[in-house]
Specification:
By secondary structure, this protein is an alpha/beta fold. The chain is about 40% helix and about 20% strand. It is built from 10 helices and 12 strands.
Length: about 300
C-alpha cells in the first residue's frame, strides 16, 4: 500500500481508504458482525484513514463504526466525519448553522467512542448557502480546531465548482482538505482540472467512489443513479469488455482511482469484509494500462458526461 500526505495536514494516509457509509445500511441491509469485521479487515490490511458522517444511515454508520473502533488502537487510524447533513426516521435534514455544527461534532464523538476527530468536514455543501458555509460553518469548526477538539477542517461536495468557490472565498489555511467523489474515475477525470489550484493553496485532495456509484461494475447501476443513459450504456459495454478479458472492471477502476499520487487517498465503502480484502488485493497489483486505454475508448464521447447535480 502506498501512503500520501493529505495536503499540509501531516496525515500520511493509505492510497485506498475505508468509507463507512455502507455501515449505515445506506444501500442495503447489513449483517452487523460482518460489518464490524469489514472495518477490522480494512485496518489490518493497511488502510489508516476512515471516513463517516452522521448522515449515513441517519446516525447508524457512526454508531456501528464506533463499535468497531472500540476494539482498534487509536493510533492505527485517522478518523474523518462531517457536519451539516443529517436525518431522522427516514427524512433527510440539513443544518449548517454554527450552533448545530459544534453540537454535531460532540455528538459524533460520543457515537464513535472517541475524544478527538482528526478531520471534520462540512458535508455536501451543494445543499447549503455557500456564504453561510464561508462565514458561519467553517469558522465554527476552526474554533473547535483551536480548542483541540478536531485537528483539521475540510469540505465535501459532488460538484467541484462549489468547492472551488468556497476555497476562493475563505482565508488561506481555513480549508485544509477537500473531498470530491466520482470525478477521478475511468469515465470522468474532472477533478484534474482543479488540482493545480488546490496544490497552490496547500489543500489536500480526497477522492471517493472509484466505481462511480456502480457505473464501473459488473452488477451495473441502481435505478436511482443520476448518470445519463448514454453513459450508463457505455460503462456497461466497458464492463463486458473487461469481463471478456478476465479482468473485472471493479479491479481496474480501483487501480486507476489510486494511481495518481496528487490525490492523497480514495475512499471506497463496503460492509462486506470479503470485498474489503479483495479491494486491498487489487490495490497491490499492477494496473493494466492497455486495458485502461481500451475502456476509455469504449466510453468514448461519454467520457466526463455530467450527471444531474454533478
Amino acid at each position: 500500500m502506498e501512503y500520501h500526505e493529505i495536503g499540509k495536514t501531516g496525515m500520511k494516509v493509505s492510497a485506498l481508504s475505508f468509507g463507512a457509509s455502507s455501515l449505515g445500511a445506506v444501500f442495503h441491509d447489513i449483517n452487523e458482525p460482518r460489518a464490524l469485521e469489514a472495518v477490522h479487515a480494512a485496518v489490518d490490511g493497511g488502510m489508516n484513514f476512515i471516513d463517516v458522517s452522521p448522515y449515513y444511515g441517519h446516525y447508524k454508520a457512526e454508531t456501528v463504526l464506533g463499535k468497531a473502533l472500540r476494539e482498534i488502537p487509536r493510533d492505527k487510524y485517522y478518523l474523518s466525519t462531517k457536519v451539516g447533513r443529517y436525518g431522522k426516521d427516514g427524512v433527510n435534514t440539513w443544518d449548517y448553522s454554527a450552533k448545530r455544527a459544534k453540537e454535531s461534532v460532540y455528538e459524533s464523538m460520543e457515537r464513535l467512542g472517541i475524544d478527538h476527530i482528526d478531520l471534520i468536514n462540512v458535508h455536501d455543501i451543494e445543499f447549503a448557502d455557500l456564504n453561510q458555509v464561508v462565514n458561519e460553518t467553517l469558522p465554527a469548526l476552526v474554533e473547535l480546531k483551536e480548542k483541540g477538539v478536531v485537528s483539521h477542517v475540510g469540505i465535501t461536495d459532488l460538484q467541484p465548482e462549489n468547492i472551488k468557490w468556497v476555497v476562493e472565498h475563505t482565508p488561506d489555511g481555513m480549508v485544509e482538505t477537500i473531498m470530491n467523489f466520482c470525478h477521478y474515475t475511468l469515465n470522468d477525470t474532472l477533478l484534474l482540472d482543479y488540482l493545480d489550484m488546490f496544490e497552490e493553496k496547500g489543500i489536500g485532495v480526497i477522492s471517493a467512489s472509484p466505481l462511480s456509484m456502480g457505473l464501473l461494475s459488473q452488477r451495473g447501476v441502481p435505478a436511482w443513479h443520476p448518470a445519463p443513459k448514454g453513459l450508463v450504456e457505455a460503462c456497461k459495454k466497458a464492463a463486458e469488455h473487461c469481463a471478456a478479458k478476465g479482468y473485472p472492471i471493479e479491479k481496474l477502476a480501483v487501480q486507476y482511482a489510486i494511481s495518481n499520487p496528487r490525490i492523497a487517498t480514495t475512499l471506497f465503502s463496503s460492509a462486506n469484509p470479503d470485498n474489503v480484502r479483495r479491494n486491498l488485493q487489487y490495490a497491490e497489483e499492477p494496473m493494466d494500462e492497455t486495458l485502461v486505454k481500451e475502456v476509455r475508448e469504449i466510453i468514448g464521447d461519454q467520457m466526463g458526461a455530467r450527471w444531474k447535480n454533478s
